[in-house]
Amino acid sequence: MENTSENKDLNKTEKSQRCITVGILAQVDAGKTTFSEQLLFHGGAIRSPGRVDRQDTVMDGNEIEKQRGITIFTDQAYFTYGGVRYYLLDTPGHVDFGPEAERALGAMDCGVLLLDASSAVSARAVTLFKLLRRWKKPVFFFLNKMDMEGASVVGAMESIRNRLTENVIFLDSQNPFSFEGEAGECLAERDEGLLEQYLEGGIDPQEGKRVLARLLKEGELTVAMAGSALRDHGIQEFLQVLGQLVQRDYNPEAPFGAFAYKVRRTREQRLVYLKILSGRLKPRDTVTVSREGQEPVQEKIHQIYQVMGSRYIPCAQAQAGELVAVSGLQETGCGTVLGRTEGTFPGSQMVPSLETQVLATDGTDDHRLLEILKSLEDEEPQLQAESRKMADGTIQVCVQVMGTIQLEVLKELMSSRFGVLVEFAPPRVLYRETIRKPVMGYGHYEPLRHYAEACLLLEPGERGSGITFESRCHVDVLAANYQSLIRTHVFERVHRGILTGSPLTDVKVVLMDGRSHLKHTEGGDFRQAVYRAIRQGLEKADNVLLEPWYEVEISAPAEAAGRIMAELSKRFAQLSPMEQYGNQAVIRGRGPVACLMDFSRELASMTRGEGTLSMGNAGYFPCHNQEEVIREIGYDKEGDPEHTSASVFCSHGAGFAVPWNEVEQYIHSSLRIDPEE
């Protein structure tokens, strides 16, 4: 850790200084890191912009990133320009590291989506734009590579309007706030006051700027500008516009609140990266950490650092609006809320679609292997490392991943950081299960001196909604504290489906009725009742197996388009009409991960290496070969005691199990409804 004299000015934030956190997002090779280096250069943070090919950038300082020439981890830096303190977050562009980019959204005040002006908007850019919208972040587009052959503002703007949003205004770098022509018309259509000015001869620049800032903040409009990061064209002008349009005020006098968006382990300590949303923070402060489904805990801050690429600079305090890394926190993970915060933070939408077994090739035992993977899971929660005892008594250590590039990086990390050599078994698709129609589920738990009963309506949820909860049970029937317990138990575990034992998703759990006992209801009783009620409902439900799908976009020579589309159709992909630009064909569609995960090799063969493939998460859809998958997995629902559908009742002082298909004959609640009515 260091604190040098050249960093003294950067180590202070004036009380009146505005702070803006800018997230840089893009697909691979859009020029994102080069763009970030230019911003740092114009902000005076570096003497000259680094270059990826020279491996001398402030961002992408990790050795693996340097070797591969891609961003793997979200890197950050900061500078002051025009009286504003800017924090930059350079996020990974490759889909395999999408969850790392998504977690950083919680720290951003705005997002800059870099687009290659010489080509159409990619599937990856569509995914990133949707994420920015989901997190309600103001969006700027920077049309990069305007120095490239074929680059066109007109073409790029048309592609944005066709694939991303029609609510976009283009600002010319030379006179961004003149609001003449198309830009003036775009603003006038969205504000009555400006419409009058526009019709009377022209929009006042200051008033137009004020309205544009408001529309940007409210998500009603996005802003596009153009330039070249490599040639340093349009970068300074873009920075000036961004600083004038982003409205985000932080209150350092309010109670402390923060959002944890990243965890990293160094040789010396565990660092948690925080976006401070309100108040101030000093070393040795005690903070309250909120945890999903658990009681809040108190933790003490040891040290606070400003982060500049790979450098950590100690500071005496931090305040609202700043990004810092802190040591001392052990219970705080990615996505954790600290102190008091307003608003909500969406859960992760980018989830792994593949699972693989980790095989140590150097004799490392399974216990140590799992320990290392759990350490990495602290930084990348989506790994979900676990050990499984198989039917033959062997142990399998498994992780969940987004794709094969992530596996290659994981292998290098385990070697370089822990000295462990591993290989991976062929990846398996991660399936999910849901229901097609509403169904009632009943769970009763009554061994001697225990009592709880839950009557739950399971309804199909919106695609991608996960598990949600609602109570329609009056507190006179079941006390509020027990209803709160039921809600906790719905969310605290992964509920397994009965087709393949895969996680249940896209289901709304509704509490319709419940029973407790004044003397006998103990802690944990409702947990058992809830688990059994959900499982009992699934036994009666019309269950559906879901599989992950990719969004795909292929650019290839036109003469190869027919063969490519035929091959994709054989792999159960659904294709949009082909587009052709000169000799290049653009093919878009979506299809099952199981069928497309190795398509890049096939594409390279069909196009002699001239085709490019962009893939993104499309979500989960009904499995194209459900019966075949169910047979292959061979899940034994009766042999899964952790997910039983039976209930426990009491008679003559002893508990006895009742199978799911007889539970409704014994249930104490009088509630009997037809869930489809």
In short:
The chain is of the alpha+beta class and 677 residues long. The chain is built from 18 helices and 34 strands. The chain has an eight-stranded antiparallel beta sheet with strand order 12-11-17-8-9-16-13-14. A seven-stranded mixed beta sheet has the order 2-3-1-4-5-7-6, sandwiched between helices.
Structure description:
This protein is an alpha+beta fold and 677 residues long. The chain has five domains: 241 residues, 3-Layer(aba) Sandwich (Rossmann fold), CATH 3.40.50; 83 residues, Elongation Factor Tu (Ef-tu), domain 3; 77 residues, 2-Layer Sandwich (Alpha-Beta Plaits); 130 residues, Ribosomal Protein S5, domain 2; 85 residues, 2-Layer Sandwich (Alpha-Beta Plaits), CATH 3.30.70. It has 18 helices and 34 strands. The protein has an eight-stranded antiparallel β-sheet. Strands 2-3-1-4-5-7-6 form a seven-stranded mixed β-sheet, sandwiched between helices. β33 and β34 form a beta hairpin. It is globular, with a radius of gyration of 27 Å. The N terminus is likely disordered.
Label this structure with key terms:
single chain, 677 residues, alpha+beta, Rossmann fold, Elongation Factor Tu (Ef-tu), domain 3, Alpha-Beta Plaits, 5 domains, eight-stranded antiparallel beta sheet, seven-stranded mixed beta sheet, 18 helices, 27% helix
